[in-house]
Amino acid sequence: MWFRNLRLYRLQRELNLDLARIDELLSRRPLARCGSFEMATRGWVFPHQEGAFVHAVNRQWLLALGVEQKLLPASVIRQTAQERAAVIEMEQGRKIGRKEMRDISERVTEELMPKAFSQRRTTWGWLDPINGWLAVAAGSDARADEFMETLLTTLDDITPRPLQTQVSPIAAMTGWLAGNDAPAGFTLDSDLELRSASQAQAAIRYVHHDIAGPEIAAHIAAGKIATKLGMTWNDKVSFVLTDKLHLKRLAFLDILKDQTDQSGITADEQFDADFALMAGELAQLFDDLLIALGGELKPA
After folding, report:
1. Residues 273/262, Cβ–Cβ less than 8 Å
2. I need a labelling partner for 95 at 20 to 30 A (CA). Which of 73, 175, 203, 257 fits?
3. pLDDT over threshold 70, residue 266
């Protein structure tokens, strides 16, 4: 259980979450199979053990949103509809108009949908009521929004908000690069993305590049800004920080994973050990990142 991408949200500090209550509310909206005429369904699934919709370790809670989606490519619908239109044109000696073509496509979709294969995917969420964090393990805004929409319609007593900081990630990352000076507890890695501040939005991406060299300094001096920057925290966790304050390509380094690799423990015990260690280290990383970004920007 090691996350790869994270979207960060803040919970109310005074919030008193009840584990049994949350588990009961999630159980009211389990993932159901797609019906014959449904393209997708979403609902909660067991994150680890059967029967529990919240997996709790040391008051750190793991949730899992399941999505089942029909696989019905638009190209298949289009090809089938075109074949049917061609038959009509040949038999009736007339051209198919746009409205009739849309009607044919809709009928084809209705006919093919019950026969389409389905696939399932899972998006993980981590609730940390002790430190006031909600983290969604999603690599795209769409997946994160999907999780948050379902969570907010399931739990009506939490109001998470996206994390905001006093110093924007763009300003901070650009400053670190300009001064070749990483914030306390972090090192700057060799992956980054620079963009022009103009409307053209020209971008330059570097992978395994010497960020201390004159080339990067020249781009910064010319007005380019940093929108992605690889970083490592305390030699334990590497990641890419983005301009939207997302953490991408998280990698928990061997020095950290070695702490949980134990012989003679069960798979369930290993899962819990990994989750507990990951949650504990990430909470500390978030605190240090907040300091590096000037502290949290409180809502008005």
Report:
1. yes
2. 73
3. yes
- For residue 39, what pLDDT band results from cuts at 50, 70 and 90? confident
Position 16 scores a pLDDT of: 72
* Alpha carbon 166 to chain centroid, angstroms: 23
How many domains would you assign to the chain? 3
- Token representation of residue 85: 């239109």
Same domain, 182 and 129: no
Residue-range definition of the domain harbouring residue 194: 169-292
Same domain, 85 and 217: no
Other beta carbons within 10 angstroms of residue 101's beta carbon come to: 16
Non-local CB neighbours of 128 within 8 Å, separated by 6+ positions: 11, 60, 61, 134, 135, 279, 283
Has residue 202 been placed in a domain? Answer: yes
* 11/67 same-domain check: yes
289 C-beta neighbours (distance < 10 Å), count: 24
- CB neighbourhood size of 42 (10 A): 19
Average confidence (pLDDT) over 218-227:
92
Tell me the per-residue pLDDT of 139-193, one tens digit each, with 9 for 90 and over: 999 999 999 999 999 998 788 999 999 999 999 999 999 998 999 999 999 899 9
Q: Are residues 176 and 86 in the same domain?
A: no
Rounded distance between C-alpha atoms, residue 53 and residue 44, angstroms: 7
* Span 14-34, pLDDT tens digits: 567 789 999 999 999 999 988
Residue 280 above 80 pLDDT?
yes
Residue 51: helix, strand or coil by DSSP?
Answer: coil
Q: Are residues 48 and 64 in the same domain?
A: yes
Whose tokens are 């240090």? That residue is 288
Spatial neighbors of 68 by CB under 8 A, at least 6 apart, are: 31, 32, 33, 34, 40, 41, 42, 118, 119, 120
Query: H helices then E strands: how many in the chain?
Result: 8, 12
Global pTM reads: 0.83
Distance in Å from the first CA to the final CA of the chain = 36
Whether 297 is covered by a domain: the verdict is no
Q: Are residues 15 and 61 in the same domain?
A: yes
